Amino acid sequence: MMLVRWDPFEEMNRLQDRFLSGRGLSKQAFQVAVDIREEADAFYVDAEVPGLAADEVKVDVEKNVLTLSGERRVEKEETEGTYRRVERQYGSFTRSFSLPETVDADDISADLKDGVLELRLPKKEAPTPRKISVKPSK
């Protein structure tokens, strides 16, 4: 019988590399980073979606909920080496946000540039106060 020297630290490194590389995980969901800012006339949502084309990102509004979704697929490359670390995230994503009542959901626009999806959520015009005249009864 042959004895094999076991190094627990090497085993931990191997497990950590396997876990962090994402190998063996199918369609791992990830969360897209977003920034939301408010200006006088609109809200803006900037979402990081590097590597995705405009037709790979979906934006929906239903019942005052804005939903961003899409999928970043793994690019199949022929490489000779073995990955030691894979930090880029792949898989499908979905982010949903409740819209304030002040947003005009019918006029939302989306623009994708340099891997950042910018959504413009214009505000509705504030209702103007009006006076109602009171007529005496006859």
Order of helices and strands: HEEEEEEE
Poorly predicted residue ranges? 24-28
For the largest beta sheet, what order do the strands appear in spatially? Answer: 1-2-7-6
CATH topology of the domain at 28-73 and 86-122: Immunoglobulin-like
| Rg estimate, integer Å | 25 Å
Shape label: elongated
The overall average pLDDT, rounded, is: 85
Number of helices: 1
Major pleated sheet: 4 strands, antiparallel
Distance between the termini: 114 Å
CATH class of the domain at 28-73 and 86-122: Mainly Beta
The percent range for helix content is 10-25%
CATH architecture of the domain at 28-73 and 86-122: Sandwich
User: What is the percentage of strand-forming residues?
Assistant: 25-35%
Backbone structural class: mainly beta
Number of β-strand runs: 7
Provide structural commentary:
With 138 residues, the protein is mainly beta. It has a domain at 28-73 and 86-122: Immunoglobulin-like (Sandwich). It has one helix at residues 8-21; strands at 34-38, 42-48, 57-62, 65-72, 91-98, 109-113, 116-122. It has a four-stranded antiparallel beta sheet with strand order 1-2-7-6, with no helix packed on it. It has a three-stranded antiparallel beta sheet with strand order 3-4-5, with no helix packed on it. It is elongated. The N and C termini lie far apart (114 Å). The relative contact order is 0.22. The model is unreliable at 24-28 (pLDDT under 50).
